Amino acid sequence: MIDITYNRSARRYEFLEPESGEILSAPPGPKNKAQLFQAALALLEPDLNDAAANWIDEEPTLERVIWRGAELVANGGVDTYPGEGMLIAKVDSSDEYGRYAVTIDGGYLACECPHWQEMGAPFASNGERICKHIAAFHLHQRSRENRF
Q1: Which residues contact residue 34 at a Cβ distance below 8 angstroms, ignoring those fewer than 6 apart?
Q2: For the chain, first and last CA: distance in Å?
Q3: How many whole angstroms separate alpha carbon 28 and alpha carbon 25?
Q4: What was the pLDDT predicted at 148?
Q5: pLDDT at residue number 123
Q6: How are beta strands 99-105 and 87-92 bridged, if at all?
Q7: Other Cβ atoms within 10 Å of 59 Cβ, number
Q8: What pLDDT does 83 receive?
Q9: Which residues of the chain have pLDDT under 70?
Q10: C-beta of residue 136 within 8 angstroms of C-beta of residue 51
Q11: Are 54 and 62 in contact (CB under 8 A)?
């Protein structure tokens, strides 16, 4: 789990590197927090970080969604169900109040989250809509299941 906290007295985001005890920090702001997450991910989960970075190289317009998906994977938020019919994964919501089903619909992945259901999720170059839950499923496959 990658736990980034906000230190109010120091007015910065912090990540405690578990092995060395070193504290990585970033100033306030969502972009800075995202960069701190990416640095922590590179240290703790290089396979996942590489999978996300490679996918972003292929699909730069999906960068935000891909990093959000990587966060869900890094925090153990993906369970897959191979061979279980249309349901292929359950992915945690980012607000920690539930899980969303990722299914197969018409040959494409579908998600029951509002972002995907309300057509707000961006499209990949292959025509698939990618919300953070579908991104998490893909990243889970690329970094956890397809290791050689």
Answers
A1: 67
A2: 23
A3: 10
A4: 40
A5: 95
A6: antiparallel
A7: 18
A8: 67
A9: 83-85, 146-148
A10: no
A11: no
Q: How far apart are CA 77 and CA 140, in angstroms?
A: 10
Nearest Cα residue to 1 out of 75, 69, 93? 75
Q: How many Å is the maximal CA-CA distance in the chain?
A: 52
Report the SS3 class of residue 145.
helix
Handedness of CA 8, 10, 13, 19 (dihedral sign): negative
Using CA atoms, how far apart are residues 17 and 15, in angstroms rounded to an integer? 6
pLDDT at residue 82, rounded to an integer: 75
Q: Where do we find the tokens 């191979």?
A: 82
Residue type, 20: S
CA distance 121 to 1: 26
Lookup: tokens for 20:
């060395």
Reported pTM: 0.88
